[in-house]
């Protein structure tokens, strides 16, 4: 019940209820209001004497929740729901969804009672015991929460690539659709807790320890995805070729493609990019020539040490 609804029940103004609840200037209900409040409490089965004598007796779920570690509790509830901030905010009923959740999780704003009940409903729906969460906010930060917290899509892609299969084939193993795998890997959403046991099983079958992946992007980050799929790759291809000191024709022969294919890669003609197989050949060639595939400055100095001396 909101303060306004309760004020109508007590037959007073909402502002008065607000003042009583925060004990502003030690202002309390007058005796007539007190008797009215006592009657309402007894109608709800509350022990009025215990309510006065025992502070914990009148502490409800909301007050227990906001006593401490509010951002961590909200973050772990969201993780258990398998949602990004925007999606979780929409479940909570926000228009500016991601911003509101971000403010809560950063501790910049306090969760109001109005939204607590919806939050509790979502928590219970995914199997969270609010008493356990209040006692230990990290109780539900399990392997699943750790897995989806950072670079979840990259980790899933890494597991799939260890099988050497396409998304549709991997989806069949997990029991979902290729489109769902695509959404996960693109970082558009994260798997719900329901899917995690199958993902963990697929990883275990390839000897992958998920705990070893968490916090170690050097293991699961896929160079092909980072350098080709997630960015405009034409500059990268051109830079690697030039730093290897090769003409377009020589570069094409080594990779095993036509000259026109290399030209289309370097000009992004028809949105063409190297395949994974071609990318692996480019990386192999770069390593042979001491060219760093990631850093332009290091590439330049490794390919031509004199350049480093000139810069100094």
Summarize this structure as a short list of keywords or feature phrases.
312 residues; mainly alpha; 434 Repressor (Amino-terminal Domain); 4 domains; 24 helices; elongated; disordered C terminus
Name of the CATH superfamily of the largest domain? lambda repressor-like DNA-binding domains
Oligomeric grouping of the chains: single chain
CATH class of the largest domain: Mainly Alpha
**Structural shape:** elongated
Task: Please tell me the CATH architecture of the largest domain by its name.
Answer: Orthogonal Bundle
Plain-language structure description:
This protein has 312 residues and is an all-alpha fold. It has 24 helices and no strands. Helix 7 (85-92) packs across helix 8 (97-105), helix 20 (248-255) crosses helix 21 (259-267) and helix 23 (296-303) packs across helix 24 (305-311). The radius of gyration is 29 Å and the shape is elongated. The model is unreliable at 297-312 (pLDDT under 50).
Question: In a few lines, what is going on in this structure?
Answer:
With about 300 residues, the protein is an all-alpha fold. About 20% of the residues are buried. The model is unreliable at about 295-310 (pLDDT under 50).
Give the SSE map.
Layout: H1 3-10, H2 14-22, H3 31-43, H4 48-53, H5 61-65, H6 70-81, H7 85-92, H8 97-105, H9 113-125, H10 130-135, H11 143-149, H12 152-163, H13 167-174, H14 178-186, H15 196-205, H16 210-213, H17 217-220, H18 223-229, H19 234-243, H20 248-255, H21 259-267, H22 276-288, H23 296-303, H24 305-311
């Amino acid at each position: 019940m909101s303060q306004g609804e309760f004020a109508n029940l007590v037959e007073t103004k909402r502002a008065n209820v607000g003042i009583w609840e925060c004990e502003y200037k030690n202002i309390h209900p007058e005796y007539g209001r007190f008797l009215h409040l006592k009657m309402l409490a007894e109608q709800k089965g509350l022990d009025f004497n215990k309510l006065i004598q025992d502070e914990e007796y009148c502490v409800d779920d909301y007050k227990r929740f906001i006593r401490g570690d509010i951002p961590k509790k909200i973050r772990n509830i969201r993780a258990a729901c398998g949602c990004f901030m925007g999606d979780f905010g929409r479940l909570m009923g926000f228009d500016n969804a991601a911003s509101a959740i971000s403010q809560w999780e950063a501790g910049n704003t306090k969760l109001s009672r109005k939204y607590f009940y919806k939050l509790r409903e979502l928590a219970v729906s995914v199997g969270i015991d609010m008493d356990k969460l209040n006692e230990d906010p990290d109780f539900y930060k399990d392997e699943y929460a750790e897995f989806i917290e950072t670079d979840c899509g990259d980790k899933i892609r890494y597991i799939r690539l260890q099988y050497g299969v396409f998304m549709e084939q991997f989806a069949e193993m997990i029991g979902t659709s290729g489109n769902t795998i695509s959404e996960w890997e693109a970082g558009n959403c994260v798997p719900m807790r329901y899917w995690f046991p199958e993902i963990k099983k697929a990883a275990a079958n390839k000897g992958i320890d998920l705990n070893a992946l968490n916090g170690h992007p050097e293991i699961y980050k896929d160079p092909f995805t980072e350098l080709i799929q997630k960015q405009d790759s034409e500059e990268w291809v051109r830079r690697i070729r030039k730093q290897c000191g090769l003409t377009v024709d020589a570069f094409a022969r080594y990779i095993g493609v036509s000259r026109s294919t290399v030209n289309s890669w370097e000009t992004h003609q028809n949105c063409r990019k190297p395949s994974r197989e071609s990318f692996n050949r480019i990386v192999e060639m770069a390593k042979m020539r001491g060219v760093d595939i990631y850093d332009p400055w290091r590439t330049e100095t490794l390919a031509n040490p004199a350049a480093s001396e000139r810069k100094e």
